[in-house]
Amino acid sequence: MSLRQELEDLKRLHDDGLLNAEEYAAAKAKLLSRMGEGPTGTPGAAPQATAKSGADNDGLGALNRFRRSRSDQWLGGVCAGIGRLTGMEAWIWRLIFVFMVCWAGVGVLAYLLMWIFVPLED
């Protein structure tokens, strides 16, 4: 497999949410150092440069990956979607929203807004 194909596979894993930004940067740096190149394609370039650029876009990337669940939903799938995004169980998020509803009804508004604006998963 060529370097380009391996980098594309890593990127696909990262985009699918199977690798977080740190794991993606570490795997990319390891792959590039194994091939004798740095992240810019020049021999001997520092592999740590990719970790910094990946971390800058991590928040936006996580927001773009946020989807409501079709398979694990009680109302709109919001809690299961947040659970997948954060790595926590959906029941924990459901409990958090129940507490937020009891606390001045903030949970109802937050849940409704996410139900309206967060798209369903494919």
Low-confidence stretches: 37-56
Residue share in helices?
A: 55-70%
* Overall geometry: elongated
Mean pLDDT equals 73
- Give the helices and strands as they follow along the chain: HHHHHHH
Structural class: mainly alpha
Extended strand count: 0
Report the span from N to C terminus. Answer: 30 Å
**Total helical elements:** 7
Main sheet makeup: none
Radius of gyration using CA atoms only:
19 Å
Question: Beta-strand percentage?
Answer: under 5%
Total separate domains: 2
Structural commentary:
With 122 residues, this protein is mainly alpha-helical. The protein folds into two domains: 3-64, no CATH class; 66-117, no CATH class. 63% of the residues lie in helices and 0% in strands.
Short summary:
With 122 residues, the protein is mostly helical.
List descriptors.
single chain
Mind sketching the topology for me?
Blueprint: H1 3-15, H2 21-34, H3 49-56, H4 58-65, H5 78-86, H6 90-102, H7 106-117
